[in-house]
Structures are given as structure tokens and as C-alpha cells.
Design brief:
This protein has about 110 residues and is an all-alpha fold. It has 4 helices and no strands. The protein starts with a helix and ends in a 6-residue tail after the last helix.
């Protein structure tokens, strides 16, 4: 497996861990429930650990843009589908812009990998 594929696998794991931690954040009830609080902290810790491994190959700015952008999009999708939250047109346009930015970075930027 090439270093670039390995880096993107680490980045994928970091995104999934971060989204899971963010979803658990709501379940902590402002850190008053121990189990969700511990699980959330572990997910965030794992996310940063995996992100640090992705940074061995990917530039920080690119990896962080992908990590943050896809984390936002996945959290929003889960919030709408699972928690039944609603979006206005401005939120939809904003998310489309985030997705577009991640696509442009990955498809066209020479900075996406060393």
C-alpha cells in the first residue's frame, strides 16, 4: 500500500472518529453523564492520533481542510437523518460550498500530497 493511500485511510479514520465524538457530545448532557463523556473524549483522542499519522504524508492545511470539511458534512447529514434537524437554503448552499472546496482540493490541487 502506498504512503498516500495509507495517509488517506488514517484521515478517513480520523474523520469517522471526530464525527462520532461530536455526535456523542450531545449525549454527554454538558458532561454530566460519565459514559458518553468518556466515549466522546476517546473518540476525539483517536481522531487526533489518526490525523497525526495522516500528516506524515499529507500537508497540514490540506489534511485539516478535508478533515474539517467532511466532518461538518457528515455531522450535518446525521443530524438531519437521525436527529431530524432541518436545514434552510442558506445551510444547504454553505454545505455545498464546503463539499465543492474539498472536491477542488482533491481533484485539482498540487498541494494535496508531497
Amino acid at each position: 500500500m502506498t504512503p498516500l493511500i495509507t495517509a488517506y485511510l488514517f484521515l478517513t479514520g480520523a474523520i469517522v472518529s471526530e464525527v462520532t465524538g461530536t455526535l456523542l457530545l450531545q449525549k454527554t448532557a454538558q458532561f454530566t453523564r460519565l459514559a458518553p463523556t468518556v466515549a466522546m473524549a476517546l473518540c476525539y483522542g483517536l481522531s487526533f492520533y489518526l490525523l497525526s499519522h495522516a500528516l506524515k504524508t499529507l500537508p497540514l492545511g490540506i489534511a485539516y481542510a478535508i478533515w474539517g470539511g467532511l466532518g461538518i458534512v457528515l455531522t450535518l447529514i446525521i443530524s438531519v437523518t437521525v436527529f431530524k434537524q432541518t436545514l434552510d437554503w442558506q445551510a444547504i448552499v454553505g454545505v455545498a460550498m464546503i463539499v465543492g472546496g474539498v472536491v477542488v482540493i482533491n481533484a485539482f490541487s498540487k498541494a494535496a500530497a508531497h
